[in-house]
Amino acid sequence: VSELPECLEQLVRTLTRLPGIGRRSAQRIAFHLARSSPDEVRRVADAVAVLPEKLGPCEVCGNLTDESPCRVCSDPRRDPTLICVVEQPENLAAIERSGSYRGLYHVLGGSISPLRSVGPEDLRMAELGRRLEQGDVREVILATNPTVEGEATALYVARQVVPEDVRVTRPATGLPVGGDLDYIDKSTLSRAFETRHDLR
Amino acid sequence: VSELPECLEQLVRTLTRLPGIGRRSAQRIAFHLARSSPDEVRRVADAVAVLPEKLGPCEVCGNLTDESPCRVCSDPRRDPTLICVVEQPENLAAIERSGSYRGLYHVLGGSISPLRSVGPEDLRMAELGRRLEQGDVREVILATNPTVEGEATALYVARQVVPEDVRVTRPATGLPVGGDLDYIDKSTLSRAFETRHDLR
């Protein structure tokens, strides 16, 4: 039995459902909000509440956006002959932050996972197929996550969705830049050794 | 410049002001909410929004409560001759969780801190004095945090607020139960050695 006032307990339970928030952090946040001014509490609640009415998927690429087509799709400086396929909008955001890519994107909305009963038909595969049929794209970069499910999804896209005459690539797997060998997991390490390259 | 839609960027900034939430976790939470159903988003926003109207300080002890006096103060099974003084409502909640205390509380609302310009007059000191004047209390346990400010606050309460004939105690400082000596900070370790006790 919790000794917290009911509305505080309710908030703690709600926050615990968010990713990366355990009961401990939820309590810290709840007590912090309980101590905050009504104005500040209102700002937090409103910042959350507006999401559903303001955000939706981009009609072209599936990115999360407040205007459709999204900012990337409607930017004339982006290279329309390159499409980078990712699982989720946050993956797109991470690649944008790295500043290493100037083409367009396609957000699948997840990865193929028999365990979670997600099949290709539950993802934005047909939409990708239709974009590729238009014939402007010369390369598809499959940047799904380097996980079993992400690999399976990349393989599916490569084999079933991308036309024969379009190049299909996947970002390299290997040691993270700045990483410490002691802290890198076995699979990454062995993959990095298998795919080692000559220095001279 | 952020590449996120404005309402998402706004939410990330708002979440970053909460304790224990960095930009990284804020983004994860924001994207999670952006993917959640409007109902779920509404539940989160509402759980936050109701706090100011439902919660306030207990008129007796200063605990955060949805009914005043709070549940602890109005519980006839609690020992009214014991008052445990804490800095914040979350400290009270932590002691309640431990189940090791059955007396009453007094929540000061913070600790004395010249650096943050918090003096005794900014805390619930006078209220504590008035409770003690009624003469029923035989012991005051000063459970302010084991920090410089918490110690100073405990000392102030002991010297300036608690009447001469009332016992004043402070929980022991020492090694945490189940802790690993390698991971315990120097001050705690040296304090634990200074206050060591005979085993036989």
Could you explain how this protein is built, in words?
Two copies of one chain form a homodimer. The longest helix of chain A has 14 residues, at 148-161. In chain A, helix 1 packs across helix 2. The mean pLDDT of chain A is 93. Chain A has eight helices and six strands. In chain A, the strands form two sheets. Chain A has a four-stranded parallel β-sheet with strand order 4-3-5-6. In chain A, strands 1-2 form a two-stranded antiparallel sheet. The first copy, chain A, has 200 residues and is of the alpha/beta class. Chains A and B meet through helix 1, helix 2, helix 3, helix 4 and strand 2 of A and helix 1, helix 2, helix 3, helix 4 and strand 2 of B.
Q: Which SSEs are present, and which pair or pack?
A:
The structure is a homodimer of 200-residue chains.
Chain A: H1 6-16, H2 23-35, H3 38-49, H4 51-54, E1 56-57, E2 64-65, E3 79-86, H5 89-98, E4 103-107, H6 125-133, E5 139-142, H7 148-161, E6 167-169, H8 186-194
Parallel strand pairs in A: 3-4, 3-5, 5-6
Antiparallel strand pairs in A: 1-2
Helix pairs in contact in A: 1-2
